[in-house]
Each structure stands twice: as structure tokens, then as C-alpha cells.
Amino acid sequence: MADFKVVVSDPETGDTTQVEVDEQDANRFLGRELGDTVEGGAVGLDGTELELTGGSDNAGRPLRADVAGSSLKQLLLEGGVGFEPSRDGERKRVTVRGREISEAVAQINAKVVSGDADFDALTDDE
Q1: What pLDDT, on the 0 to 100 scale, is given for residue 106?
Q2: Residue 65 and residue 81: Cα distance in Å, rounded?
């Protein structure tokens, strides 16, 4: 059974909160890809819509939007998600995970696209 930490941010206010989801709520994320939208009810934000923006797996490897599937890939990166070069022209081979959410994912990053995100209601329930 899948368990995720979902980090939800509201770009309008700059607020961020972390919610743990499991069982049926976690199944709503399985098979989705980065850029897809999910109803906020999965994390307790009824009436909102969330866009999946990123995440990482159990070992801390990032999800990368330009890699298909959910498997691990080794890419030669010049920058972007997974590698920050320290000088011009630097490249590095990095292991990243594809854009599809699978059971190997530990954290999912999402942002509020529509609706009113009341993060205070989430913290009162915990």
C-alpha cells in the first residue's frame, strides 16, 4: 500500500503545508504524472484543485518531468531538476526517476491551482 507525504503550496499567499496521505487517498495519486491535476479532497482541501509539480523517491532522487514512466534513468545533465552546476559547461551523470507517480515515490509536491486553500483547517485536524 502506498504512503506519501504531499507538500502543498499556495502561490498566491506563499503558504506551504505538509500532509501525510495513505490508503485510499494515496491511491488517487498513483499513475498520475507531473503536471496533472488532482482534487484537493485527497489531502483534506475540499473544493480545491492541485497541480502535481514534483517529488522525490525513497532515496531522495527527484522526479523529472521530461523522463517518461516511473523507472530510474541515468541522464547526463547540464542543469535543471537533479543537478545544479557550479561552473559553466559542467555536466554530470545523475540518476533520476520518471514523471509518473508510483509506490516508490515518498514525497509529492503540489500547488493550488483553483479554489481557496485553508491550511489552518489541516493543522487543526492533526
Answers
A1: 93
A2: 9
